[in-house]
Amino acid sequence: MTSPKVLVASDLDRTLIYSAAALALPLPDERAPRLLCVEVYESRPLSYMTETAAALLAELGETALFVPTTTRTRQQYRRIQLPGPAPKFAICANGGHLLVDGASDPEWHAQVTERLAGECAPLAEVRDHMTATSDPAWVRKHRVAEDLFAYVVVERELLPEDWVKELAVWAENRGWTVSLQGRKIYAVPKPLTKSAAMHEIARRTGADLTLAAGDSLLDADLLLAADRGWRPGHGELADVGWTAPGITSLPERGVAAGERILREFLREVREAR
Questions:
Q1: pTM
Q2: 248 has which bridge partners?
Q3: How far apart are CA 194 and CA 89, in angstroms?
Q4: How confident is the model over 237-246, as pLDDT tens digits?
Q5: CA dist list (Å): 183 to 16, 22, 137
Q6: Measured between alpha carbons, how far is 233 from 221 in angstroms, rounded to an integer?
């Protein structure tokens, strides 16, 4: 019998890799785990994982089809230097771009943009609404990502308590989803999903088993679409106690959760083999 082909689609930020602010290291400094920097931005270290997690990810890349799955743009994704073999596939822009050997698949991107044009309000309307209703007192940046979705970078301590909720209600009626992740508030079209891109990769590769992990509202569809999924003890999904059949809610928070998720992936891959 041949071994089953396992596809592992994992979110990156605050799932496998962590900024200094998101590490959540509860131990005394002398007992903190050794960290590996996996992203540099403007000549400064930005994202980390533990050295143990790095070794686990390298092993995972050798034994399963590992697919980095992120809301980041292609440019932002390419700053990350993950341990292990270079992934054959990656999902960027929340499913708007499917990278094959580092290059965006044009047919997939065309399918996505056609679907967005027919199923939800245009990006310009959402972007203009976010600009008109936000306040420069607490918004630091307005951004459009890959001409697919919009986000703002805010000062969390100044952010009005109800603004995100009101934006979410407004966006819901126009076919968009709102997600608060750290200092960023995303508005993303509902048809723009990580799960659709994961299904396409599974179709192309003939994967027998799909595993997934993620921490935010934008990862919920990915977790539900996989055969088995994990979420850490932090993030949007943990904050609301979100769970579903086939989903394991882990107690670990911060960089320790990234380690645990990789151990769970590897355990499933070994059992499948």
A1: 0.94
A2: 230
A3: 13
A4: 999 999 999 9
A5: 18, 11, 14
A6: 18
